[in-house]
Every structure is written in C-alpha cells, then in structure tokens.
Design brief:
The structure is a single chain. The chain is mainly α and 280 residues long. It starts with a helix and ends in a 20-residue tail after the last helix. It is globular and about 55 Å long. It has eleven helices and four strands; from the N terminus they run H-E-E-H-H-H-H-H-H-H-E-E-H-H-H.
C-alpha cells in the first residue's frame, strides 16, 4: 500500500509544478534587515498553490513517519491535512465561481499577514494574527452545491473528522495511551513498529491520500487546466482499482447509519467519497 501512496505523491508533485507555473512566482524581497520570498500579488490562486505545497509535503511526511513507527505524529499530521484540504476546496470554489466573498477576503488577509510587524525585533511586535474560525470554513465547504451531503450533515462530518485527530495534536490522554501496550505493557517511545498500530494507520492513511488527490483535482478545475483535469481523473480511477475501492456506498446512507449506530463509536471515522469536482 505504501508504494501505491508513493506513486500517487509522484503524480501529485508533477501536477503541482504544472499548476504553480500558471501564476507568477514569489519574489525575493527585503523584510527588515534580511530577504525572503513573498508573492507580490496576494491572490487566492497563490494561496491555493502554497496550501497545496504543504498538503503534498505533509502527505510525504506521513510515509516517513509510518515507516519509522511514529503513529502519534502521523495522527497529528492527519489533523493538519484535514484543514489543508478544507482550505484548498474553500479557496478553489471562490476561484472557480470568480466570486470572492467577505469570508474569503478576511481569510486571505489573515493568511498573508506577517507574523511580526517588527521583523528585526519580534519581542517588540505588538500585532497578533487573528484567526478565522474553522467552523466557518467547514460551513462554506459543506455548502458547495456539488456536495452529495446536505450542508448540515456535511458540516457535522467535517467537524467530526476534525475532532477525531485533535487528540494527537493536543496530546490527550486517550490518544497518548495508544502508545502503551505489549508484554509486559510499556510506553513505546521509539516508534511502534511490529505492533498492530502500523497496519491500522497504513490503512487509515488511504483516506487522506485520496482526499488530498481530490483537492488537487479541485485546484486543476479552478485553474481551468482541462488537460490536467482529464489526466487526474484517469489516475484517480487507476488508484481506486489498484487499491480495490471501486464500489462506494451512498454518502447520505453512510451518515444515516452512523447516526443510528449503537455501541462504541469508531475511533477514527473516515469520510465517504467526496464528489469529484465538476470539470466546469
């Protein structure tokens, strides 16, 4: 399965460079007493490219960690990947519809704001970066007309996925104790190779790679690169066949069953297949 993930990452990286070449590159500019790369035009398109770069890099990092047995850290990365996917789709919808809402404008202002307004003396920088509530981004993504789920269920699903991996980010007790076990029981501080956690998380990563690839497809649609869109659809179908996931349950039925499920909840809920972006 890991080799399948690597093949997807190689395809994503090639597609990323084609998309990033469609906008002006960052410029090397003065920032205080040093120079940094910054985009001259702080557009939604440039923000998407930057988020996509972190998404692909993050997915590749999960493979490095899983091969070393660090599943707690994989879980923390998965929370980050969820947010990156949401941000990308949120911005791509605005680009696709050529409609930057007030929420998009505020998001972009926060995204491009420098961390310190006194770059040479961070201690004297009074500004504090505001944050757009995650629930607002999730609500906007859930309201996209092409979604199979209604906005209410969609937002609840995003909120649940967000919470599922939050314990890895904030080091909650229940998540930390997943490091404990064996005979005799002990904390595994050097990774968890040769434990059931590795195949469990390897399977779990499929959903993050798949959602990341769909986010890439959203980017290609938003950038109106029809040739790339067709290529990505073909690779997605190939990936589904290679991983044995060609049959999909109705998302609304999955949510209905989840709401009616009795007994302990699944520790790591996974999203049903997101509808593919319309080629436009």
């Amino acid at each position: 399965m890991l080799l399948l993930y690597e093949a997807m990452l190689d395809r994503m990286e090639e597609a990323f460079h084609r998309l990033s070449s469609m906008i002006d590159p960052p410029e090397f500019v003065a920032r205080g007493s040093y120079h940094v790369f910054r985009y001259k035009n702080e557009t939604a398109e440039a923000a998407v490219i930057q988020k996509l770069a972190r998404l692909i890099s993050g997915l590749r990092a999960t493979l490095v960690l899983i091969r070393s047995g660090y599943v707690q850290e994989v879980g923390a990365l998965c929370r980050m990947l969820d947010e990156l996917n949401e941000d990308i789709v949120f911005l791509c919808q605005a680009i696709k519809e050529d409609k930057i809402t007030d929420l998009h404008q505020r998001y972009l202002a926060v995204f491009y704001e420098e961390e310190f307004d006194e770059p040479d003396n961070p201690l004297l920088s009074p500004q504090k970066r505001p944050m757009i509530p995650r629930a607002k981004i999730q609500a906007a993504v859930a309201a996209i007309p092409e979604n199979a789920l209604n906005p209410s269920d969609g937002q609840q699903l995003y909120r649940t996925l967000h919470r599922a991996n939050s314990g890895y980010v904030h080091a909650a007790s229940g998540h930390i104790l997943e490091m404990y076990g064996g005979s005799p029981p002990r904390y595994h501080l050097s990774g968890m190779l040769s434990t059931p956690r590795i195949p469990e998380f390897t399977r779990h990563l499929w959903h993050f790679f798949y959602r990341g690839f769909v986010s890439l497809m959203f980017c290609a649609v938003a950038f109106r690169n029809r040739v790339l869109v067709d290529e990505l659809y073909a690779f997605r179908d190939q990936f589904e066949r290679a991983s044995g996931k060609t049959q999909w349950d109705d998302p609304n039925e999955l949510v209905r069953r989840a709401k009616n499920r009795k007994g302990p909840a699944n520790r790591s809920p996974t999203a049903p297949r997101r509808d593919s972006p319309s080629p436009g």
